[in-house]
Each structure stands twice: as C-alpha cells, then as structure tokens.
Fold this protein.
Amino acid sequence: MIHRCSSAVVKFPGSLYFETIHSPFREDDQEEVIKLWEKVFPKAPPHNNPARDIKTKREVQPDMFLVAIHDDQLVGTAMAGFDGHRGWVYYLGVDPDYQRRGIGTGLMKRVEAKLVGLGCPKLNLQIRADNAEVQSFYESLGYDPEDRLSMGKKF
C-alpha cells in the first residue's frame, strides 16, 4: 500500500472531490512511472530513455520530481528543475483514465510553487507543435506561446 504525505483536494468536473497525493518520486515508483510515460507519451523519440532520465533526476534536484497518487495508484508525474535563471518542466503526464480531473493542474501548481520558493522568475516548457490539446491546457493555466525556435544537440 502506498502511503504519502502532502495531499491536495482536487475538484472533478461535476463538483466531485477526491484526494490526490502529490509527493516526491520514490525509488519504488520507477516501474509505475515508466509504464505511465509509455502510455502517456507514445510518440516520445527513441533517445528519450525513461530509466536514465529518472536516474539523472534523482541526482539533481530530486525533490522537483513529483508523482500524483490516487487510491494507491500512480496517476501522474511532473519533473521540473531550476538552473538559477529559468525553471523548466518535463514529463508532466496524467493517465488518460484520470485526465480532465485537475491532476495535471494540481501537479503544475505544485511545481510552480516549488520553483517560486527557489526564486525562479519564469517557467519554460516545450510541447510538440501539433499538440493543440496540450497547448490549450497550458494556456488555461496562464502560459502563452512565445516566438522562439527550440534547438537541441544530442550527446
């Protein structure tokens, strides 16, 4: 049985409520997190390696890797970080069976609060250009598209 602290009441559409726990990732969450990411991010590029990403995050600001638990089931994740200049969020994902119930919003609000607590002045994130649904989600939270070109280099 999963026992967590730091619960938050999340409002469902239709005025239903339930308890969702947002807590830091624990080692025994790894298998469930990877299964969730495979389900939520089916178009992830081959160079994304969930086990490696989890290992690396556990070494750098591990308290910025959150999971959402409902009825002892891992239903969402958010991985964030602050480099002293900007905050970033990655792997915000919610099990499709639990989407549109406030879990993603709750995770983002928790990430934002943690980043503000670190002195972060701005949070950046990237989404796929063709993902209008996710863009709408972030816009509903106050995020605006910026005229930027994302560039990367694989090592």
Observations:
- The chain has one domain: 7-140.
- The first strand starts at residue 7 and ends at 11.
